[in-house]
Design goal:
alpha/beta, Rossmann fold, six-stranded parallel beta sheet, 6 helices, 6 strands, 16% strand
Length: 193
């Protein structure tokens, strides 16, 4: 009987120590990082047209929004495209220009997809958009360029962003402002974000 009791007591102690050991290990292990699952609509708008379009997309996607604010605001003279030496024209002619941004996104890691909205300036994205995408690590993220324009389409900008957003999946994007609300909803749904 003593042998049986001794073996039983030894087995009980092993079970107790093993159970305690597992719970201590579980408590000390670091939690796994939460995968990025949110969507962000980041937009740059000088006249309000792009902002309106971007907010419409954000509403459909139930996405967070972020306004890209230049450190030095653009004045009406800066945007006078008829003046050869206006700021917008000077920046667009210099592919290396990177206007400074006043604000920053905190925790960009939480976003799986970023819709980048901008007006078209001389057939392409404003250089501040280049500053924006180069300011973050976008590896593994989905980037959706969208633009507003009186006549130019988004192909050049989408190609530029594919070059700038190393490691990201940059989609072809869309020109907004020419779509009805239903067409916009259908296009956003087709993204499967």
């Amino acid at each position: 009987m003593k042998k049986f009791f001794g073996a039983f007591l030894a087995a009980l102690m092993m079970i107790t120590f093993t159970a305690c050991g597992n719970s201590a290990a579980e408590k000390n292990s670091t939690p796994e990082a939460k995968p990025a699952d949110k969507i962000l609509v980041a937009y740059f708008s000088c006249t309000g047209n792009t902002k309106a379009a971007a907010l419409e997309v954000a509403e459909i996607l139930k996405a967070d929004t972020f306004e890209i604010v230049p450190a030095q605001a653009y004045t009406s003279d800066d945007l006078n495209y008829h003046a050869e030496n206006c700021r917008a024209n000077i920046e667009q002619k210099n592919s290396a220009a990177r206007p400074e941004i006043k604000n920053k996104i905190e925790n960009i890691e939480q976003y799986k997809a970023i819709v980048v909205a901008f007006p078209i300036w001389w057939g392409a994205e404003p250089r501040i958009i280049d500053t924006f995408v180069e300011s973050y690590n976008l590896d593994g993220k989905i980037i959706v360029p969208v633009c507003t324009s009186g006549g130019s389409d988004i192909q050049t900008s989408a190609a530029n962003l594919k070059q700038l957003c190393k490691g990201a999946n940059v989609l072809d994007g869309k020109r907004l402002g020419i779509l009805s609300k239903d067409e916009l909803k259908a296009w956003v749904a087709s993204l499967k974000l």
